[in-house]
Amino acid sequence: MKILAFTGMPCSGKSVAVQIAKDKNIPVIRMGDAVWEETKRQGLELTDKNVGFVANDMRKKQGKDIWAKKTVEMIKKLQKADFVVIDGIRNSEEIGYFYNALGTSFIVIAIRASEETRKQRMFSRKRVDDMASAQAFRQRDKRELGWGLARVIAEADIEIYNEGTIDEFIDTIKEVFTVFEKR
């Protein structure tokens, strides 16, 4: 099984890359879905504050790789899949767990975009867990950087810069999938 894992700061383009995978019928496991599920299980509304709290709390209680463990459990259920995409790696402990559990078929792709570009995207996309202000945006960045996201991005196997048009980014991601499907 080949596994591509996307990482990047909020609003960098991960969701677009993941949607392209879905459009190509590549199974996608979004690590945030496990966090959302746990947030709902705890009876909390899906807000940025609550989702962030649950993600932090679970990491403190069960280790920084808790969401990777839950993701690998989901991947193991996809026994017939030969290609899987993971969305949302946040720390090097998760990467270490994935490499140990999944082996060399695991590739990390960092999607990079400037803070200003990401902020503009966040205010236009209106996702349920998005931030409502520039201050909240900076707080979320700070929280995710505190989890070790900068190191994950820096150590990624591949970097893709997403500062151009959406069509340019889509073409780039499609090419990445074409290359990895042929491996």
3D architecture notes:
The longest helix has 17 residues, at 166-182. The chain is 57% helix and 14% strand. It has a single domain (2-165), classed as 3-Layer(aba) Sandwich (Rossmann fold), CATH 3.40.50. The protein starts with a strand and ends with a helix. It is built from nine helices and five strands, in the order βαβαααβαβαααβα. A five-stranded parallel beta sheet has the order 2-3-1-4-5, sandwiched between helices. By secondary structure, it is of the alpha/beta class.
Fold blueprint:
Elements: E1 2-8, H1 14-23, E2 28-30, H2 31-41, H3 48-62, H4 66-76, E3 83-87, H5 92-102, E4 106-112, H6 115-125, H7 134-146, H8 149-154, E5 158-161, H9 166-182
Parallel strand pairs: 1-3, 1-4, 2-3, 4-5
Helix pairs in contact: 1-9, 2-3, 2-4, 4-5
CATH topology: Rossmann fold
Q: Per CATH, which architecture?
A: 3-Layer(aba) Sandwich
CATH structural class: Alpha Beta
Number of domains: 1
Question: What is the CATH superfamily label?
Answer: P-loop containing nucleotide triphosphate hydrolases
Alpha-beta classification: alpha/beta
Strand neighbour order, sheet with most strands: 2-3-1-4-5
Give the CA-based shape. globular
- Kindly state the mean pLDDT as a whole number? 89
**DSSP strand tally:** 5
Alpha-carbon distance between the two ends: 11 Å
Tell me the major beta sheet: 5 strands, parallel
The arrangement of helices and strands along the chain is EHEHHHEHEHHHEH
Radius of gyration: 16 Å
Low-confidence stretches: none
In helices, the fraction of residues equals: 55-70%
- Please state roughly what percent of the residues sit in beta strands, choosing from under 5%, 5-15%, 15-25%, 25-35%, 35-45% or over 45%: 5-15%
